[in-house]
């Protein structure tokens, strides 16, 4: 269901703010929510579409990271040539969201499968570009690196699902309400 321009811009702003507010911690802590970026790009592709919105969310992510690097040493550590790997990482999520947005009705198995597959591919792209281009992995082989980062996939997936599952439920309930309204009309 297409959004009006006003709703589209409001949703874009809401997604950018959610990403900026949570980008301080990959997996969250007892006082900070985990990073919503993966969910934001998947939902953005699903609900907003258009590469202009993708570019604006990428700019918001970069701006958040640059601001964060001013105060957090570890954030500055991420701003290497490998940072460009976030573009294909987020594009995979965006495209999966676009595909999901074209589906007629929510299906938990299909939608969960597409979400998990997109997040897994995003994880691979992000880590592969970090390994290849960050300049921080000198002397570490591919197998050692893979072994070291594989333990981060469950929280990477879990952080995204923390946001995607409630969004999916809202989508399903909204879709069901729309169908009931159409039947009663």
Describe this structure in words.
- The protein is mainly alpha-helical.
- The protein has one domain.
- The protein contains 8 helices and no strands.
- It has helices at 5-22, 37-47, 51-71, 73-77, 86-101, 108-133, 142-150, 153-184.
- The two termini are 18 Å apart.
What's the short version?
With 185 residues, the protein is mostly helical. The chain is built from eight helices and no strands.
Record field, number of beta strands: 0
What's the tally of helices? 8
Q: In sequence order, what are the helices and strands, one letter per element?
A: HHHHHHHH
Indicate how many domains the architecture comprises.
Answer: 1
Kindly, what is the distance between the CA atoms of the first and last residues, rounded to a whole number of angstroms? 18 Å
Strand percent estimate: under 5%
Helix residue percentage: over 70%
**Shape category:** globular
Radius of gyration: 17 Å
Please state the structural category.
Answer: mainly alpha
Q: Average pLDDT across residues?
A: 87
Instruction: Specify the biggest β-sheet.
Output: none
Low-confidence segments: none
Helix and strand arrangement:
Blueprint: H1 5-22, H2 37-47, H3 51-71, H4 73-77, H5 86-101, H6 108-133, H7 142-150, H8 153-184
Helix pairs in contact: 1-2, 1-3, 2-3, 2-5, 2-8, 5-6, 6-8
């Amino acid at each position: 269901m297409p959004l009006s321009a006003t709703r589209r811009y409001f949703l874009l702003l809401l997604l950018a703010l959610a990403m900026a507010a949570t980008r301080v911690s990959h997996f969250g802590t007892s006082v900070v929510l985990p990073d919503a970026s993966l969910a934001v790009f998947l939902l953005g592709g699903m609900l907003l579409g258009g590469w202009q919105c993708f570019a604006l969310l990428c700019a918001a992510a970069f701006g958040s990271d640059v601001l964060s690097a001013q105060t957090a040493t570890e954030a500055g550590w991420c701003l290497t040539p490998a940072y460009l790997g976030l573009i294909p990482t987020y594009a995979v999520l965006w495209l999966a969201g676009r595909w999901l947005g074209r589906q007629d009705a929510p299906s938990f198995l299909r939608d969960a499968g597409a979400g998990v597959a997109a997040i897994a591919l995003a994880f691979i792209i992000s880590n592969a570009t970090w390994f290849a281009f960050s300049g921080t992995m000198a002397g570490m082989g591919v197998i050692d690196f893979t072994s070291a980062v594989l333990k981060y996939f469950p929280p990477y997936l879990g952080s995204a699902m923390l946001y995607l599952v409630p969004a999916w439920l809202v989508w399903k309930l909204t879709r069901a309400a729309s169908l009931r309204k159409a039947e009663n009309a």
